[in-house]
């Protein structure tokens, strides 16, 4: 299969999400149930942020907050960078690399239709982009 866009990588898999009002513990259960490292945070269907395992560790557990009472809104990464579903993988890889993050919400208009993980992108695509950068002298 030739991958032409971010949408091609996502396929039609469901988008696990959580409300900003949910507790961190509830979000951790969703992460565990789906065996994933991040969730989109939706507030009434609108993208409010991303909650990653790193957010849970650094902004909740390491700060001695109680996951049973701390809310997702308190520890999530708000207003995350996003990528359009029809964008190319090179664009997504570049955004992740420049922003130093591993998850990127995928948008179709105003709707979040997925969460792209760096692990979703085939290794050969990541390597190809890296080689291209090297050939250009590190410029992105």
How would you describe the overall organization of this protein?
The structure is a single chain. The protein contains six helices and seven strands, in the order H-E-H-E-E-H-H-E-E-H-E-E-H. With 140 residues, it is α/β, with parallel strands linked by helices. It has one domain (15-135): CBS-domain (Roll). The strands form two sheets. It has a four-stranded mixed β-sheet. Strands 5-6-7 form a three-stranded mixed β-sheet. Strand 2 (38-43) and strand 3 (46-52) form a beta hairpin. The longest helix has 13 residues, at 123-135.
What characteristics describe this protein?
23% strand; alpha/beta; 140 residues; three-stranded mixed sheet; 6 helices
Backbone CA Rg? 16 Å
Task: Give the CA-based shape.
Answer: globular
Number of domains: 1
Low-pLDDT regions: none
Helix content: 25-40%
Number of helices: 6
CATH architecture: Roll
What name is given to the CATH topology?
A: CBS-domain
Q: What's the rounded overall pLDDT mean?
A: 91
Write out the CATH superfamily name.
Answer: CBS-domain
N- to C-terminal distance: 27 Å
Topology as a string of helices (H) and strands (E): HEHEEHHEEHEEH
Mind summarizing the main beta sheet? Answer: 4 strands, mixed
């Amino acid at each position: 299969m030739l991958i032409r866009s971010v949408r091609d990588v996502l396929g039609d898999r469901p988008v696990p999400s959580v409300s900003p009002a949910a507790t961190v513990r509830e979000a951790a259960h969703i992460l565990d149930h789906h065996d994933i490292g991040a969730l989109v945070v939706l507030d009434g269907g609108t993208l409010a942020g991303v909650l990653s395992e790193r957010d849970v560790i650094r902004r909740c557990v390491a700060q001695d907050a109680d996951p049973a009472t701390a809310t997702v809104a308190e520890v999530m990464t708000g207003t995350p960078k996003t990528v359009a579903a029809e964008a190319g993988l090179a664009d997504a890889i570049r955004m992740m690399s420049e922003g130093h993050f591993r998850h990127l919400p995928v948008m179709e208009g105003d709707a979040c239709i997925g969460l792209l993980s760096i692990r979703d992108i085939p290794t050969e695509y990541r390597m190809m982009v890296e080689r291209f950068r090297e050939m250009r002298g590190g410029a992105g």
